[in-house]
Amino acid sequence: MSYFKDENVTEDVRRNHAFKLLCGLREALSVARRSQQMVPYRKAMALIKDVDEELFKEVKQLVTKTNEHELVKYYRQRAFFTSKENNSEVLPQELVQEDIDINQKLLEQNNEGDDASMITKRIIELEAILEFFNPEDISENSLLNHDFNTLKRFDFFEQKLYEDEKLQDYSLDNNRVLRMRLLHPDKGERVTGTDMVYEQFDLINNRVRFVHLQYKTWNTNTLYFSQGNVSDQIKKLDGNLCQSGYCSNYSNGKYPEGFRFPYCAAFLRPTSNLTRPDANLFSTGDHIPICMVKKIQEEDVKLTNKNIVGRTLSHKLFSDLFIDNLLGSKWISLDKLQEFYEEKGINSYVGKIRVHAQEVNFETEADIARRSEN
Predict the structure, then answer these.
(1) Residue 64 covered by a domain
(2) Domain assignment of residue 233, yes or no
(3) What is the number of domains present in the chain?
(4) 169 lies in which domain range?
(5) pLDDT tens digits, residue range 111-166?
(6) What's the CA gap between 354 and 349, in Å, rounded?
(7) What's the angle, vertex CA 166, arms to CA 162 and CA 171, rounded to 5?
(8) From residue 317, how far is each of 265, 284, 304 by CA, in Å?
(9) Are 182 and 51 in contact, with CB atoms under 8 Å apart?
């Protein structure tokens, strides 16, 4: 039986697990697309439907509300009254596009040295709003497009990692592909204690690096270490990742060479507690390295929004630093990654929730140089 249908587990607990799944997918999608802002929950829900429609139906029953930005409500209302005034239908996305065009023209007319940061920011916001109004079908809008053939040329990606995996491949910009795996959850206890894995492959140099995120629900910004299996999962992440050498540099030293944050590959992500299917979806965006969580655990019985100050990264900082290879694991060979899978039993076991994203980069150094010149 699917975990999300298991009536032996309270609906509130299943709802919060469904929300964590949605958060993990939304985060993976935002990193892959290099988004300036997190993609809407609505788009993350659409991706669940694209990859696994049965899972989508179960999650949708538990989490019915996908938040609308204030600007979405504004353009929807503006379209309604404009349609009445014109006596013909005006779509919200038409009004959004008009405002994008106006702001783009202002940017084009901008003299060098003039501050246009707020106009640029508004264009980014409007583009996100425009995407919100796009059709739900993933393959028909600018969210992602299916890629059916690229990864099939490589033996490594022909392997099946999980028993009941559902996956889709999507094309990204700059000669990249995103393989998104959603694992239909069962009631077993996860091996690594991880909710979302993001791997970045460099096939030109036959290497990969990764980051693991553990999502945990906290009430009123407080998470007790004695709650459920919190301590056990922190211990697993620490043992499987932090103590396995993935945080050390290439000479097995403590700090990386050159300018870089430590090779931190495991983070805790607190999420809000949902008590109703139609509750507003909100996540603080805090990313706390597991080593910092363990230090807090030595000092306190709980994690709070106060004792994580100075020890956490926002989503945007986390995303930007990971994309720029300033945090996350060090690069390892594909063979080494396979050894890790086998040693930890990841490829033979499915936990309660799992999002496994694999971003595959086919760019050469020459491609990157040409892109930088342009």
Answers:
(1) no
(2) yes
(3) 1
(4) 141-373
(5) 666 788 888 888 877 877 776 676 454 544 456 788 988 998 888 888 877 777 78
(6) 11
(7) 115
(8) 15, 13, 20
(9) yes
